[in-house]
């Protein structure tokens, strides 16, 4: 007998994003804006002064403070992950017991369910309606009936691109006092900060709010995520995470990037304008193409059209060196530069009926 992987690992597939050279990449919801030279210089200056022989700050205080300043929260309610993905993994593995139930509002960010299965947490998948929205009272009733220990959802949602109004989010939190509600606000910057639970994350004993540098902040490569909650849960998460989870270079980069408030706001404005541009172009296309069956109004930096023969359309775009995300009956297309938006819509114009 030789060593055998345990069953749950045997069936697990490594994450497989589109890889390789594409002329246009609109598949991963990244920012299409590059860091400016001045910001890059500040980061490299900071890294040049770093003590490479020493462990970094285990709490990444400089990054937490910069984040807290930009978003107007108290830094004592903030902790960090090596990318938000790491924090999501930790929340599911450490804030739930084996056999507990995690409620997911599908379709939603795929990692929630993947981590649940990995940690032997029971995923309870609630299917959204045809229009990809939820009935909040129905979610509450089902969550109560199933006695779910955690409810995790992205708001606005990846992949549907739809935001859930703040009053509905508050209703969920208040109606389910025994359930830990985790609101993943990876795309909130593109919608409306007034819809965010960030500033009141510490005020509910059953709420945690998530943010990342990978989307609106335009720094997917540095791997930096933030969790905001009350002191009790932040302390628990700090204790549960590995001590030096965020490396020194990332801490410096995050501090510099998040301190450039004016540039950040300008970039977010520019990405939102690109989203509007892509959505307008896609609406015009939809008016001429019966193959586009449905497309929600996006609150994110991507559109999510339901397309006839989506897999074939995805492949045809790939042939034209354009990468988008294929998701069942839908395509998820990140907004890019004006030229990239025009190119993907022109390609779809050729491909679709
Ligand atoms: C991109 C994304 C994340 C992951 O963010 P990272 O910080 O890059 O790990 C988490 N949640 C949602 C909904 C996302 O779309």
Give the oligomeric state: single chain
Q: What fraction of the residues are assigned to beta strands by DSSP?
A: 15-25%
N-to-C order of helices and strands? HEHHEHEHEHEHEEEHHHEEEHEEEH
Structural class: alpha/beta
Helix content: 25-40%
Could you give the count of β-strands? 14
Present as ligands are: pyridoxal-5'-phosphate
Largest sheet: 7 strands, mixed
Low-confidence stretches: none
Strand order, main sheet: write it out.
Answer: 2-8-7-6-5-3-4
Q: How would you sum up the global shape? A: globular
Roughly how many Å apart are the termini? 57 Å
Number of DSSP helical runs: 12
Overall average pLDDT = 97
Radius of gyration computed on alpha carbons: 21 Å
Can you characterise this structure?
This protein has 353 residues and is an alpha/beta fold. The protein has helices at residues 7-10, 37-48, 61-71, 84-94, 111-118, 136-146, 166-175, 231-240, 248-259, 261-288, 310-319, 338-351; strands spanning 24-25, 78-81, 101-106, 122-127, 150-154, 180-184, 207-212, 225-228, 292-294, 302-303, 306-307, 322-323, 325-327, 330-334. It is globular and about 55 Å long. It starts with 6 loop residues before the first helix and ends with a helix. Pyridoxal-5'-phosphate is lined by residues 29, 83-85, 109, 154, 158, 184, 186, 212, 214, 220, 225.
């Amino acid at each position: 007998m030789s060593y055998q992987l345990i069953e749950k690992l045997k069936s697990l597939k490594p994450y497989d994003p589109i890889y390789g050279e594409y002329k246009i990449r609109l598949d991963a919801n990244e920012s299409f804006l590059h860091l400016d030279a001045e910001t890059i210089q500040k980061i490299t200056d900071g890294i040049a002064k770093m003590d490479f022989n020493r462990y970094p700050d285990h709490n990444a205080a400089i990054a937490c403070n910069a984040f807290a300043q930009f978003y107007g929260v108290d830094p004592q309610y903030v902790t960090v992950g090596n990318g938000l993905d790491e924090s999501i993994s930790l929340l599911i593995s450490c804030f739930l017991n084996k056999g507990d139930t995690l409620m997911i509002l599908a379709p939603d960010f795929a990692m929630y369910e993947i981590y649940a299965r990995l940690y032997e947490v029971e995923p309870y998948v609630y299917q959204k309606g045809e229009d990809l929205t939820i009935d909040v009272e129905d979610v509450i009733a089902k969550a109560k009936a199933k006695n779910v220990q955690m409810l995790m959802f992205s708001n606005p949602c990846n992949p549907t691109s739809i935001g859930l109004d703040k009053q509905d989010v508050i209703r969920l939190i208040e109606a389910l006092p025994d359930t830990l509600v985790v609101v993943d606000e990876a795309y909130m910057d593109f919608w409306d900060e007034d819809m965010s639970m960030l500033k009141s994350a510490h005020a509910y004993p059953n709420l945690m709010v998530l943010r990342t540098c990978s989307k609106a902040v335009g720094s997917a490569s540095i791997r930096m995520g933030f969790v905001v909650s009350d002191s009790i849960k932040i302390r628990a998460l700090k204790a549960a995470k590995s001590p030096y989870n965020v490396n020194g270079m990332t801490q410096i980069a995050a501090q510099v990037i998040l301190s450039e408030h004016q540039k950040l706001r300008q970039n977010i404005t520019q990405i939102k304008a690109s989203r509007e541009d892509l959505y307008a172009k896609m609406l015009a296309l939809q008016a001429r193409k019966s193959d586009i069956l449905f497309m929600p109004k996006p609150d994110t930096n991507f559109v999510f059209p339901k397309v006839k023969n989506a897999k074939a359309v995805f492949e045809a775009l790939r042939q034209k060196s354009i990468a988008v995300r294929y998701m069942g009956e839908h395509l998820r297309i990140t907004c890019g530069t004006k030229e990239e938006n025009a190119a993907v819509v022109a390609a779809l114009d050729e491909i679709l009926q």
